[in-house]
Amino acid sequence: GMGWDGLLILxxxxxxxxxxxxxxxxxxxxxGKEKASTAVFAxxxxxxxxxxxxxxxxxxxxxxxxxxxxSSDAVVGYSLLGHSAVEVDFDKLTIILHDPExxxxxxxxxxxxxxxxxxxxxxxxxxxxxxxxxxxxSCYIDCASSEAVEFLLKPDQKxxxxxxxxxxxxxxxxxxxxxxxxxxxxxxxxxSHELKNVLAAFAPSEVRSKQKGADAVIxxxxxxxxxxxxxxxxxxxxxxxxxxxxxxx
Length: 249
Known about the structure:
Layout: E1 6-9, E2 24-28, E3 37-49, E4 52-62, E5 74-76, H1 78-81, E6 85-89, E7 94-98, E8 110-113, E9 115-117, E10 120-128, E11 135-142, E12 149-153, E13 166-173, E14 176-190, E15 193-204, H2 205-208, E16 216-219, H3 220-223, E17 226-231, E18 236-241
């Protein structure tokens, strides 16, 4: 979900230890219905992940403590995904960067087409809420969300909401808290694979998403059931069910 080279540091307490060069002020908006977060940023920074160094990066540090208590300090996205074919192995808990020109994917992987809007990957899925025929939805991928799928509630939505739901706090975005509902749906169909009895989230589109035309968000509790290869240059997402595929939701 992060379509630019750099780091977004959520932990404001790191501002003193991360020495920004010629910092500037910014407003960073995102999910939520409050005002955008204020931040400081600098370009031409560098960081490393393992032995891989990333240069000429934008580093943004939030000023507020909206994400206090979060399990992560920062978000990184396009620096990895925009320049390499990125294999995410949830069985081995590793991320492998491949040269896109040399990537050779065998027949054990299923290739799904992805498209891009503002550098964010979109994918088509089918869903069954109860017993109706599968419905096609246009979704984008947000690995930072711990849900499986987040349906976006709006006047022209293509799906129904389960009869039994629970009101919940779904999380915090760059523009504040997100409240919605959770409930079980019959299945999500991703490529040739069916995930059944899925615990899904439902949130007002104007609060959860700034992406026009999205029906839903595909998130980590669904994606982690596959090993993945994100191949942005060829606009493909390769998937292979892993040891978590049958984990209950």
